[in-house]
Amino acid sequence: MTIPRLIGSLLLFATAGVGCGEAAADAKAPAGAAAEPEVRPLGRIVPVPASVTPEGEPYTLTAATRIGIDETSGASRAIGRYLAGLLGPATGFPLPVVDDSAAGRGIHLRLAPDETGLGDEGYRLVSAPEGLTLTAREPAGLFRGVQTVRQQLPSAIERKSVQQGPWKIAGGTVTDTPRYAYRGAMLDVARHFFTVDEVKRYIDQLALYKVNTLHLHLSDDQGWRIAVDSRPLLTTHGGSTEVGGGPGGFYTKAQYREIVEYAASRYQEVIPEIDMPGHTNAALASYAELTCDGVAPPLYTGTKVGFSSLCVPKPATYDFVDDVVREIAALTPGRYLHIGGDEAHSTSHDDYVTFMNKVQPIVAKYGKTVVGWHQLTGATPAKGALVQYWGLDRTPAEEKERVAAAARNGTGLILSPADRTYLDMKYTKDTRLGLAWAGYVEVRRSYDWNPATYLPGAPADAIRGVESPLWTETLATTGDLDVMAFPRLPGIAELGWSPASTHDWDAYKVRLAEQAPRFDALGITWYRSPEVPWPAE
Ligand code: NGO
């Protein structure tokens, strides 16, 4: 069997119109929704909660509000401080974090280990004039619940200077747990490099929508972005440029740890990806011994794919992989290490299988679980591996079936269909940034599908969740990232979090429209899709 190459070769024809710094063309929106109400109806947030029971009068934040925590938990204290940091600037209230018993009519963050129904990330929010109580079994649940509190408040809460209140949260109870344990977003820092602060900014945006996994695409033909002490040229040479010939960049180990810690403080697990055996020009350019002819290619700043490969027969290749995987695994508290495996068009099928059979055990040796793009099912995914499906509606049935068969065989699936979840796809032909090889992906298209039934023949319980990749061939600034991610990212986040029974475009588009003033308050550049009834400008 040959590794199907259709999707990859389509990429060679990708439209890579580099329009850095430009926002996508604004489209004319339908008549806008009314201005924000003083009290947002309970549950009118993104992702929509699993269960909402409105009841009674709202809770009101005041200058006297205190945030009560269980003093024995350092995690609750950190979340209390984070909440105070979110609500403090716009309200101007001090919001001290105190022992729960001293919080009175304030906000209570309670950990209740016996609340098994709330799982690892669920929470219950009870809002009444006497107080606002968040209960969770785990700190992660409190953190997700804090995002609900935040979104129930007027959008002005996101501003960094004191705003006019009142600050009310509708009365009632929200009980909320996620549909999928894996709710990811990927950022490609290889095609264009993004600084630690820029990555932190994205992490904060993801947190608002209850995303729990940040997949970092750390290496590609155009750049190697993570320090590996045993292979210094990877970063000094391989990290020295990017698409378009800019200066590139890389994370030192300390900087990378900073990202991982910041993500952890937002209850996000970082999955580092080192893409192999293809997408490796930056590594080959740095270490000639990794090529079969022993000649290092020049650095590459274009946007083609599929032309590079580590030399599979050479032992030096596995010494290299061992060094890289060992050092990156040591930097990774998370469970997973992503080994790429997509578009290995310059690797023969037999070599691809050989490579994956040798490399997957190296990942296991350093205590990590393999994740790979779904081409990994053309070899044999290791036991427990996850594969990330990035096909399209038009992907050949046999390729889909190969992935489904792996899923029936126990391989977990992360769904990132390119014509639904790829945030780098243009919304329409008029979108200035982005690619179009997977077609145009408007907001409805990205939201309106069901992960559980998406891949024919894949058992529903093999679906671990969804992930929205943000590839950056055409994206160079945070404004570029923003306008491609917003407003599609919240929709994919909702697919991952909210129960299937809540899936409804007509209801979703109204809740999404209500996010617009929040995007503005957060300084997010966003695409005014004509499919969504945005508030009038
Ligand atoms: C493909 C390709 C990437 C491109 C991206 C652009 C995968 C898994 N491999 O997705 O190298 O950057 O499309 O949309």
Can you characterise this structure?
The chain has 537 residues and is α/β, with parallel strands linked by helices. The chain has two domains: 56-170, 2-Layer Sandwich (Chitobiase, domain 2); 179-500, TIM Barrel, CATH 3.20.20. It has helices spanning 6-11, 74-91, 139-152, 196-208, 233-236, 253-265, 281-286, 315-330, 349-365, 397-408, 418-421, 443-447, 478-485, 488-497, 505-513, 516-521, and strands at residues 51-54, 59-61, 67-69, 97-99, 107-111, 123-128, 131-136, 167-169, 172-176, 182-188, 213-217, 219-220, 223-224, 269-276, 336-340, 369-373, 386-389, 412-415, 463-470. It has an eight-stranded parallel barrel with strand order 10-11-14-15-16-17-18-19, surrounded by seven helices. A hairpin with a 2-residue loop joins β6 (123-128) and β7 (131-136). The longest helix has 18 residues, at 74-91. Mean pLDDT is 94; it is low at 1-31. The structure holds ligand NGO. Ligand NGO binds at residues 11, 305, 342-343, 373, 390, 422, 424, 435, 471, 473.
Short synopsis of the structure:
With 537 residues, the protein is α/β, with parallel strands linked by helices.
What keywords describe this structure?
TIM Barrel, disordered N terminus, 30% helix, 537 residues, Chitobiase, domain 2, 2 domains, binds ligand NGO
